[in-house]
Amino acid sequence: xxxxxxxxxxxxxxxxxxxxxxxxxxxxxxxxxxxxxxxxxxxxxxxxxxxxxxxxxxxxxxxxxxxxxxxxxxxxxxxxxxxxxxxxxxxxxxxxxxxxxxxxxxxxxxxxxxxxxxxxxxxxxxxxxxxxxxxxxxxxxxxxxxxxxxxxxxxxxxxxxxxxxxxxxxxxxxxxxxxxxxxxxxxxxxxxxxxxxxxxxxxxxxxxxxxxxxxxxxxxxxxxxxxxxxxxxxxxxxxxxxxxxxxxxxxxxxxxxxxxxxxxxxxxxxxxxxxxxxxxxxxxxxxxxx
Length: 290
Hints:
The relative contact order is 0.10. A hairpin with a 4-residue loop joins strand 5 and strand 6. The chain has 8 helices and 10 strands. The strands form 2 sheets. It has a 6-stranded antiparallel β-sheet. It has 2 domains: 130 residues, no CATH class; 125 residues, Rieske [2Fe-2S] iron-sulphur domain (Rieske Iron-sulfur Protein). Helix 1 packs antiparallel against helix 5. It is an alpha+beta fold and 290 residues long.
């Protein structure tokens, strides 16, 4: 795992902790306000029983009242219950305590917005850190049948371009394979050469412009600063410091597979394994090397 991946994961973790902290703080404040506004259970019970009469026979009744009750019971009489007004209802709760306050609505809105933003950022980070989930650049790509690809190149006289992989496919002559094996930069991609193809990254190694194909010269020619590369991406002119970068390619059951997880540096200046020269006028004038 490289440093950029670790940095992005750290950012996601930090934002997650901030979200938990803000959410917990808002919930705690809401609970504290509700507790302050609402009367406790003891207060409600005390208010409900404050004006009730003390029943006869209760532990707090006086001895005289007890004797009077016993005497009336002996005579078969009933003790008249004194008229006592009903106990008043507890004071109504504040509507602000029963409902949701404006401050609570604002706090919850902020937390919700923060959560949605964090979710979107997290999803974007996941998509960037694990590009292989989409089957595009950054993964192994099954380009198609190798015979169909080579036939298409021969018919159109131009490389096969795969936008999802940001790469060009071009034929690699078998007579150049032995020369390529002697160059250290080619060792990781020789398997594709043996199958007769090379997979070239579309970016110019000078300043990163996308390099188009020139049909007249049958070379790659960069419109930004004039760097030129032959059919297999070897540098022929301009300020580029090396040939076009490339990807490892292989053929599995007749299907061309290109591994775009790793960009392999292009061959050094002066490499010429195919001997291919310009086959017509250039589309871009070559800039002087510097």
